[in-house]
């Protein structure tokens, strides 16, 4: 007998459908095994698909989620967390607190439970909706560095295109990402991925990082402080519209190396591929001893339906 599962697609880091980054959310997924989840993620063919399950320990988390790209499962991701928080409210699985303007839940991920805050907003029918979803990522870890003359050509750049005085480095706030700060928008626009060279570097590193985040100071719009592009290598090999986990790692990188004066800033991504997205970012803790990075943004529902397998 075919099984059915309710699902949604939600665009994260935007208030407008068909912008930001799309995520599929499959509810009541406890009976699905890992292979089937991966097959569904390939079928959805979005940068990530979220599967919502019961928490392993209800005393530590309210919900559990597993995140899959079309190629693999990942331990933590930003835009699926924003989309999942929104979808839990939109689908009626999470009731917002009536006595305050924010509801906090624990969300169990493969890296452990994280805090998720949902800021309330009145909807057109008088019910409480979602204005913003914020996730608190894991304590930043600064890992391996890579020579500029090795890393830059993988993205069609030269060492002179990179911002001087800071390393090309893997940073993780739950999912390790390769951070590369470039001089300006011109260098960022010229970046292009040499997938075989990227794959060779990743394999040589022992798969030390999941994907690559290139960014520069100055937003795509006057509201932004930083603008980024995110590249995923084989087997997916595409540019991600908005990457919340990498935005958290980028925030930690910017703060640690003194590239921003304030730990609060606005990150923009996706504008050059017609999927503009915006996040509010706050790095919590001193530059040499950060505790967490808060990454927040709105979301918009696009599809509500039923998956039959």
Give structural notes.
This protein is of the alpha+beta class. The chain folds into 2 domains: 146 residues, Diaminopimelate Epimerase, Chain A, domain 1 (Roll); 150 residues, Diaminopimelate Epimerase, Chain A, domain 1, CATH 3.10.310.10. It has 6 helices and 18 strands. It has an 18-stranded mixed β-sheet that branches. Strand 4 and strand 5 form a beta hairpin. Helix 2 packs across helix 6.
Features:
309 residues; 6 helices; single chain; alpha+beta; Diaminopimelate Epimerase, Chain A, domain 1
Q: Give Rg in angstroms.
A: 19 Å
Mean pLDDT reading: 96
Helix and strand sequence: EEHEEEHEEEEHEEHHEEEHEEEE
> Given the helix and strand composition, which structural class is it?
alpha+beta
CATH fold category name of the largest domain? Diaminopimelate Epimerase, Chain A, domain 1
How far apart lie the N and C ends?
9 Å
Counting DSSP H or I runs of 4 or more residues, the number of helices is 6
The CATH superfamily of the largest domain is known as Diaminopimelate Epimerase, Chain A, domain 1
Number of strands: 18
* CATH architecture label of the largest domain: Roll
Tell me about the largest β-sheet: 18 strands, mixed
Q: Into which percent range does the helicity of residues fall?
A: 10-25%
> What is the total number of structural domains?
2
Strand content of the residues, in percent? Answer: 35-45%
Reading off the top of the CATH hierarchy, the class of the largest domain is best stated as: Alpha Beta
Q: Any low-confidence stretches, pLDDT <50, length ≥5?
A: none
What best-fitting shape do the alpha-carbon axes yield?
Answer: globular
């Amino acid at each position: 007998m075919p099984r059915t599962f309710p699902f949604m697609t939600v665009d994260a880091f935007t208030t407008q459908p068909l912008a930001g980054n799309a995520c599929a959310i499959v509810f009541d997924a406890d009976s699905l095994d890992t292979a089937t989840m991966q097959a569904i993620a390939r079928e959805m063919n979005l940068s990530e698909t979220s599967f919502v399950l019961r928490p392993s320990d209800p005393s530590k988390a309210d919900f559990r989620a597993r995140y899959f790209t079309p190629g693999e499962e990942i331990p933590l991701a930003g835009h699926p967390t924003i989309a999942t928080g929104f979808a839990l409210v939109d689908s009626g699985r999470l009731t917002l607190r009536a006595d305050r303007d924010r509801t906090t839940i624990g969300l169990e991920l493969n890296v452990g439970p994280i805090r998720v805050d949902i800021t309330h907003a009145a909807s057109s029918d008088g019910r409480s909706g979602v204005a913003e979803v914020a996730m608190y990522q894991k304590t930043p870890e600064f890992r391996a560095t890579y020579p500029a003359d090795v890393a830059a050509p993988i993205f069609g750049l030269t060492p002179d295109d990179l911002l001087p005085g800071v390393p090309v480095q893997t940073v993780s706030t739950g999912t390790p990402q390769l951070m590369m700060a470039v001089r300006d928008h011109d260098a960022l626009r010229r970046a292009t991925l040499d997938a075989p060279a990227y794959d060779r570097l990743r394999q040589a590193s022992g798969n030390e990082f999941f994907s690559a985040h290139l960014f520069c100071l100055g937003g795509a719009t006057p509201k932004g402080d930083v603008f980024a592009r995110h590249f995923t290598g084989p087997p997916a090999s595409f540019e991600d519209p908005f990457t919340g986990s990498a935005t958290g790692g980028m925030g930690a990188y910017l703060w640690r190396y003194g590239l921003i004066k304030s730990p609060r800033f606005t990150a923009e991504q996706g504008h050059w591929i017609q999927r503009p997205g915006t996040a509010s970012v706050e790095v919590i803790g001193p530059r040499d001893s950060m505790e967490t990075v808060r990454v927040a943004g709105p979301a918009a529902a696009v599809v509500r339906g039923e998956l039959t397998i």
